[in-house]
Amino acid sequence: MSRRIEEIEADVARSRARLEKTLQRIEHKLSASGMVDDALASLRRTRHGDVVDRAMGVLRDNPVPVLAVMAGIGWLIGRSRSGRGYDDEPASNSSRAGAFSPGSHATKAPHPQPADVEKHDAPPRDAVEPDVPPQPRS
Question: Is residue 64 one of the residues assigned to a domain?
Answer without folding.
Answer: yes
